[in-house]
Amino acid sequence: MIRQFLQFQHVLKRNTKARRSETSKxxxxxxxLSRFRTFDVSWFCLLAxxxxxxxxxxxxPAAAAANGTSAPPNxxxxxxxxxxxxxxxxxxxxxxxxxxxxxxxxxxxxxxSFYATTPVCSPSRSSFVSGRxxxxxxxxxxxxxxxxxxxxxxxxLARQGYAAGYAGKWHLDGSGKPQWGPERExxxxxxxxxFNRGHWKKMxxxxxxxxxxxxxxxxxxxxGVAGADEKSxxxxxLAQKAIDFIDVHHGEPFCYMxxxxxxxxxxxxxxxxxxxxxxxxxxxxxxxxxxxxxxxKWGRGEKGVGEAQLRKIMPPYYGMVKxxxxxxxxxxxxxxxxxxxxxxIVVFTADHGDxxxxxxxxxxxxxxxxxxxxxxxxxxxxxxxPGTVVDEALGCVDFLPTALGLMGVPTAGKEEGRDASAxxxxxxxxxxxxxxxxxxxxxxxxxxxxxxxxxxxxxxxDRPWLFDLEHDPQELENAFDDPACRDAVKRLTAELIDYCxxxxxxxxxDPKMKAEMLSALE
Length: 522
Ligand SMILES: [Ca+2]
Fold this sequence. Notes:
This protein is of the alpha/beta class. The protein folds into two domains: about 400 residues, Alkaline Phosphatase, subunit A (3-Layer(aba) Sandwich), CATH 3.40.720; about 80 residues, Arylsulfatase, C-terminal domain, CATH 3.30.1120.10. The chain has 14 helices and 16 strands. The strands form four sheets. Strands 5-4-8-1-9-10-2-11 form an eight-stranded mixed β-sheet, with helices on both faces. Strands 13-14-15-16 form a four-stranded antiparallel β-sheet, covered by helices on one side. The chain has a two-stranded parallel ribbon with strand order 3-12. α1 packs antiparallel against α2 and α7 packs parallel to α9. The longest helix is centred in the middle third of the chain and has 31 residues. The site of calcium ion (CA) has 6 residues, from loops.
């Protein structure tokens, strides 16, 4: 046990060092003593937590190896909302210590180019649960109800005998708000704690069922956080629902998704997280103030955000992330306590990002990295080698075929995403096509093809843009006309044309974009 603890310590130290170097290289975050102090305090807590876990249960990796892959694994998906990947340690974050999410990455896999198929809530979620592109679910923008014919991963697994449930924000049943336990379950048969919409902060259980505990003067639910504690704060309350489900179903195959509405605004969180990062030096993105020439037309028109506002709104955002990580720890501890962590595939991801000031913007909706790239961490003992890093571009649409591929369960055959499970198990197939497709909601109309290195965007508003993410990680220069990028432009354009045909994307018929695509092939 002590030997294993020392191994953990060694591995985590090595990864921390690598992360610091990666962070300064890729994200240009300024180093600050106060931030390291914050990290080091949490680091100490992390070691204590690991020691506790190591002493109270069997060693996870050894048990995983012994367990093999014969039994049907459980699937547990933890999703956040509007979450910038770089707030997590395993994605280079240095402000918030996220030992539990990092543990999943270090003992499983981390995807470094995983994208929201549409970087807006409802469409992204529809692709994630169905493996289909948003136009075919047909949730192309927020509040469109998902079609009855859509088959989710929960429905496929329920047909295989899995107990299935969901807690938290769903956003696929129209505009109802909060709308508890939507009638259409899509296979998540225990959806008592699913709500359609809203960023509620305080929940309660009543004899009539769950409800938002914070109420306005007219007794309507509101986003108030006053009085929320470790039981009623929404993140804690939802994590408890996941734990309750595990307590009931740990002896049979199960599939559960818990969808936290944080760290989406409002940027408020319960104590002690509300003041935990009050003194931290908020990094100011290099792209906060950029020229109009550096800004594609599809990236303009927002009111913008300044340094002072970022310094005010980011500390509670970090607090929300810390609360999420602590609750991921609680859920993992529950799996450990029942002896089923090694039998459970655990996924941590988000519906889309939050620019957090990058490109002078907040929120999402554009194809920039902070908006469209999301964390995707997956732990599957005995299936995914610890410390796996998948750099190939993937999207939400690829989740269902990939997860079921890892589980050895056939899909419904309606999916448009790809089974990328071989990338995660280290058996990279020869000739894997490194491309993911992204599309905007209707308002903007852009269409993008992304690889590990390049991002090509066509839009009705502007000429095509190409970002070379290796040479220009801040996405400030249009490399479309760079002769060195000619092959990348041609390849990604051909892929995009093919995708539009195969996946019924009407953007391929936009006269301006179509002409530009054909011209790029010449
Ligand atoms: Ca969202």
